[in-house]
């Protein structure tokens, strides 16, 4: 049972996409399509090249946005507005998950590489409004993305979170390396288990996992 491993935790940090909603909702498919279109329009390259650059920048810089900013000096505002202008029709409210997040002892925050307004839309659609004490997007870290340690440090300093008494829930295993190094308890939320030294726990059912903590 995971509960003893979380007895010291007073701050609970949740990623957004594919963490606070199931991957089956496929929201990120829409986002990736819009990312590719933005790269096509901005860099004036064909779709295949834009798609390749989107993935390459994600791999090399943490996010496609970070690569575009560093290599092409793009303005992040229009990009974030464009890629997050998606339909949330496939998302369903989850009252059980909301209740379990609210029952966690201590502070609860969302930290995403998306933008804050998009995160708020998703949270509302999932019926999680009021479950979190704060919501942070990439803009709150000066557009420095996860998995960079400096991004986490900026958010935690802004929030007043002490990593040694915090837990991180995240679908992208890359984004758990820095939290682990900072002393956080790490939980990989994904359909498939990945064995890695920086991952303490795995679950394919966030709500069920939280039920064993409260």
From TrEMBL:
Keywords: Hydrolase. Transmembrane segments: none annotated. Pfam families: Hydrolase (PF00702). The keyword Hydrolase applies. One of its GO terms (molecular function) is hydrolase activity. CDD domains: HAD_5NT (cd02604). NCBIfam families: Pyr-5-nucltdase (TIGR01993). This is Putative hydrolase of the HAD superfamily. It comes from Roseovarius lutimaris.
């Amino acid at each position: 049972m995971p509960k003893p491993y979380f007895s010291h935790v007073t701050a609970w940090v949740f990623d957004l996409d594919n963490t606070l909603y199931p991957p089956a909702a496929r929201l990120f498919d829409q986002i990736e399509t819009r990312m590719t279109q933005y790269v096509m329009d901005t860099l004036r390259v064909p779709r295949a090249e834009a798609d390749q650059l989107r993935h390459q920048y994600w791999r090399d810089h943490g996010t496609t946005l970070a690569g575009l900013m560093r290599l092409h000096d793009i303005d992040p505002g229009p990009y974030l507005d464009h890629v997050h202008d998606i339909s949330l029709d496939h998302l369903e409210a989850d009252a059980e998950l909301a209740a379990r997040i609210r029952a966690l002892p201590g502070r609860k925050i969302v930290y995403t590489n998306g933008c804050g307004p998009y995160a708020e839309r998703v949270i509302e659609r999932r019926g999680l409004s009021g479950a979190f004490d704060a919501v942070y997007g990439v803009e709150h870290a000066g557009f420095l993305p996860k998995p960079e340690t400096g991004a986490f440090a900026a958010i935690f300093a802004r929030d007043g979170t002490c990593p040694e008494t915090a837990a991180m829930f995240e679908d992208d295993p890359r984004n758990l390396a820095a939290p682990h190094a900072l002393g956080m308890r790490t939980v990989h939320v994904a359909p498939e288990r990945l064995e890695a030294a920086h991952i303490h726990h795995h679950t394919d059912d966030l709500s069920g996992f939280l039920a064993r903590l409260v």
